[in-house]
Specification:
With 264 residues, this protein is α/β, with parallel strands linked by helices. The protein has helices at residues 28-37, 54-64, 96-111, 145-158, 175-189, 207-218, 240-246, and strands spanning 11-12, 42-45, 67-77, 87-93, 120-121, 133-139, 163-167, 193-195. It has one domain (11-246): Alpha-Beta Barrel (TIM Barrel), CATH 3.20.20.
């Protein structure tokens, strides 16, 4: 699908597939084909501490003619009382060396944790091992303003010139306040904001399947999962019209029209 006049270009920078066990409800091929149909300029497949879905996504992207960004995402833990609060870190490889560094980073995390898990603490995250990569940090909802500023300043001192704060607006009641707080942190640190979707399914009709996966992951009956379930089905690959209506069009929160440098 060609870019339609009046609609912003968009690249999804945070997306997991079914290779993120019990987290993603769509296959890599489905995500790539949906992104192409929606007219996205690129899609970043960022399975959690894994590169397992990249090969299938690459084949699909080559077939449909979509730019694929190679990456992964991690939940970063912080010692209680420290700033910032825990957050999600998306890492995108920009070069072949960056891809190798990211793979080594994932391997090191997996080898030091029980099988099928990993643990990444803020105090142990050495930014130098992620050379030739760019990062997007997505704070968790509920983080205090001081914690958001702390995260932005942490990024500024370790990933200068190659980092963003991710903004997820998923039709929740506190979206406007959340965006306001992220803008404050951005202005105080000069870290730019970028729109991300925190995607875990290619279409909203996969929400019931994702609910069942959540129940399986938490070992609870579906009727007892409560707030463990997503509050809505917004974490899918939305149309660019819907994205334009959701995210502000000023420079305080840019849609990802110009994502990371191409992998080469």
């Amino acid at each position: 699908m060609e870019t339609m006049p009046g609609l912003p270009a968009y690249a999804e920078l945070r997306c997991v597939s079914s290779f993120s066990f019990l987290l993603g409800a769509s296959q890599p091929e489905e995500l790539v084909e949906r992104a192409k149909t929606m007219g996205y300029s690129a899609l970043a497949l960022t399975d959690e501490c894994s590169m397992a879905g990249i090969v299938r996504a690459h084949v699909a992207a080559q077939r449909v003619g979509l730019k694929l960004l190679v990456g992964s995402q991690f939940r970063v833990e912080v010692l209680e009382g420290d700033e910032p609060a825990p957050f999600n870190l998306v890492v995108l490889a920009c070069t072949l060396d960056g891809y190798g560094n990211l793979c080594e980073f994932i391997t090191a995390l997996r080898r030091t944790a029980p099988k099928g898990s990993y643990r990444l603490r803020l105090q142990e995250l050495d930014h130098a091992v992620l050379d030739d990569c760019v990062v997007v940090a997505s704070p968790l909802r509920g983080a205090r303003p001081s914690q958001l500023v702390g995260l932005a300043r942490w990024l500024l001192t370790r990933f200068t010139g190659r980092c963003w704060l991710g903004v997820e607006l998923l039709r929740q009641l506190d979206d406007e306040m959340w965006l306001y707080r992220l803008r404050e942190a951005s202005e105080l640190s000069a870290i730019p904001l970028v729109a991300v979707g925190d995607v875990c399914m290619h279409v909203r009709s996969r929400k019931p399947l994702h609910d069942v996966m959540t129940a399986t992951r938490t070992a609870k009956p579906l009727t007892e999962c409560g707030l463990e379930l997503q509050v809505n089905a917004e974490r899918h690959l939305r149309t660019r019209l819907r994205l334009a209506q959701t995210f502000p069009t000023d420079h305080a929160c840019e849609l990802a029209a110009h994502p990371s440098p191409p992998f080469r």
